[in-house]
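The records we work with from here on pair a chain with its fold. Each token is a code from a learned vocabulary of local backbone shapes. A record is reproduced here so that you can trace the correspondence yourselves:

_____
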Amino acid sequence: MEQLKSWLRERHQLAVAVYSTGAADAILARNGLSIVDFLRPLSLVNQLNVPMRVGEFSMRVQEVQLGLFAGKSMHQPKPEVIDEALRLLLTVQAQQHATLQAVPNLIQHVQTEPPEVTSPWFHSYQAEFLRLVRFTEHETLDHPAAGLFFMPASTTQ
């Protein structure tokens, strides 16, 4: 159950669009970082005490994990691009995990072995699929709740 809770917390974070100028990107690139990587340690906001009510259910929010995304990457690719990326991922995963060893009783094998053994490609496929179908126009879960804009202090215009 904790694994599911952790996955849901990671998947349902408040999305924050992060934008920066080329000069700000260049400063951080010298250290091998992007602006999102630089801000990620600050994305956990704790020591809150905010009341929240949904219908008849009320609770207090004490910490929020922000999902930081580069603003220019917050779009969903075209379906053809998604299909091709998933096809490529499955091809690579099939080459990595392919075996020519015969399974005498496939049904028993699937029922007794953990999912990581019977389908080792699934976690990679699921993560890539969910990454590619984020940021659609018709849903509000991944629409940015905030936007951060960065530029060097030495910028004059």
Summary: The CA atoms of residues 40 and 149 lie 15 Å apart. The longest strand covers residues 57-70. The mean pLDDT is 83.
